[in-house]
TrEMBL record:
Sorted UniProt keywords: Coiled coil
Record InterPro entries: Metal_resp_DNA-bind_regulator (IPR052509), Tscrpt_reg_PadR_N (IPR005149), WH-like_DNA-bd_sf (IPR036388), WH_DNA-bd_sf (IPR036390)
Ranges of residues in domain Transcription regulator PadR N-terminal: 12-100
PANTHER family in alphabetical order: CONSERVED PROTEIN, PADR-FAMILY TRANSCRIPTIONAL REGULATOR
Basic and acidic residues: bias regions: 188-197
UniProt feature coiled coil, ranges: 132-173
UniProt-recorded name of the protein: Helix-turn-helix transcriptional regulator
Cell inner membrane in keyword set: no
Segments of this protein annotated with the region Disordered: 188-218
Superkingdom classification of source: Bacteria
Length: 218
């Protein structure tokens, strides 16, 4: 499975975890909520859905309402109307479990440009410690990239024309902005962890010690 198809499967599972959807609605959500998929078509989406159904992570449910017109996609005809039925995709228990496993992953793939954006879109469903590892990994990756860009620019500056030089500077500034943004997010996550820890300690301090009656056999 290619990295790009893996990202698409992750996004589909994440969206269907929120609610069942038909293919047209899924495509709209991928296009509008996850910008990395703006160029994706039904030709990419439906093979992905079929594969997820075959693995037992999704099930297809047919409703009587017609789906939007889709080129190259044969649907079962709705009874009496002669129009194609709308196929709704729903996440199974196994699919939810698999998606939660994917959410817990924090390896290098989660830091890459394409995958990071999709992972970030589902941070609301991700635990804080996993968010921290992904954010810190992404920042480290960009800091490495920035160091290489600076070194390359220092070696080639004299051979570049003004426009190429300006383009390279623009690229560096974009990476620097994202590093600052990531640092702000990481600091916010840390402050949230500290606040939770203080609240937990205060709750424990305020809780009265159990009295003799608490241990009385019933």
């Amino acid at each position: 499975m290619s990295r790009r198809s893996g990202v698409l499967e992750f996004a589909v599972l994440g969206l269907l975890r929120e609610s069942p959807m038909h293919g047209y609605e899924l495509r709209k959500r991928l296009n509008t909520s996850l910008g990395v998929f703006r160029a994706f078509s039904y030709g990419s989406l439906y093979p992905c859905l079929k594969a997820l159904v075959q693995r037992g992570w999704l099930v297809e449910e047919t409703s009587g309402q017609p789906e939007e017109q889709q080129s190259g996609r044969a649907q079962a005809a709705a009874p009496l109307t002669g129009r194609r039925a709308k196929i709704v995709y729903r996440l199974t228990a196994e699919g939810k479990e698999h998606f939660e496993e994917l959410l817990s992953q924090t390896g290098p793939d989660t830091w890459e440009d394409e995958h990071f954006g999709v992972r970030f879109a589902f941070f609301g469903q991700t635990s804080r410690d996993v968010r921290m590892r992904v954010l810190e990994g992404r920042r480290s990756r960009l800091e490495e990239r920035l160091a290489k860009m600076r070194a390359s620019l220092a070696r080639t500056r004299e051979r570049l024309d003004d426009y190429t030089l300006e383009l390279q500077r623009h690229g560096m500034e974009s990476v620097e902005r994202e590093v600052r943004w990531l640092s702000e997010l990481i600091e916010s996550e840390r402050q949230g962890t500290e606040r939770s820890g203080r609240q937990g300690r205060q709750t424990g301090q305020d809780r009265p010690a159990p009295g003799p009656s608490d241990n009385t056999d019933r």
